[in-house]
Structures are given as C-alpha cells and as structure tokens.
Design a protein that fits this description.
The chain has about 100 residues and is an all-alpha fold. It has one domain (about 10-95). It has four helices and no strands. It has helices at about 10-15, 20-50, 60-70, 90-95. It starts with 8 loop residues before the first helix and ends in a 6-residue tail after the last helix.
Length: about 100
C-alpha cells in the first residue's frame, strides 16, 4: 500500500541529505518505474479513447458549422479599425502594415 503524505521542502531536503547513495538510487529507480507505468497507462487510455470515438458524419459537421456561423455575430467587437483583418500582425506585434 502506498501512503501519500504532504511534506515541506525543508523536511524533504533533510530526508534527502540523510539518505545514503544506495537509498537514493533505489528511490530514483522506483520513481522511474512509477513514471514508466504512468506513461504506459496513459498510452493505453489514449488508444482506448481513440478506438471508442467515431468520426462525425457530414450532417453533424454541417450542423456544427451552421450553428457557429449563426452565433458568430454575437461575439463580434467593433474596433473602428477598418484594416484589422488584413493587418492584425501590425496591431498585435508591430510588424509593418500590409498595403
């Protein structure tokens, strides 16, 4: 059974200083094995998720775009800048304006 306990940085530093080299190597091997197990579990979960998902059909995609286009005007902001779309890099990053 693994018991997790919150410790302060000072307590952790003291514990590490009191360990001999063999203890530190064992701890590092255990930690590396733990990380590898986590990565393997995550890879399996990703594969499982990918196999459970099917691509949406064309009607569902079209419906999503229709809804997006209907709602986009609700989020528009009037800036008063006529060339914002063409020169957004200029306004965001200071690059030279396009003509």
């Amino acid at each position: 059974m693994i018991v997790r306990k919150e410790v302060s940085n000072a307590a952790l530093a003291d514990a590490l200083q009191n360990m001999d080299e063999g203890d530190l190597q064992n701890m590092l091997r255990s930690y590396q094995a733990y990380l590898e197990a986590c990565e393997a579990k995550q890879a399996v979960e990703v594969e499982k998720d990918a196999s459970n998902q099917s691509a949406p059909n064309l009607d569902e995609r079209d419906e999503g775009w229709s809804e997006f286009l209907e709602n986009i005007d609700q989020h528009a902001v009037e800036t008063g800048i006529k060339d914002l779309a063409a020169n957004h890099d200029h306004y965001l990053y200071g690059t030279p304006k396009r003509k």
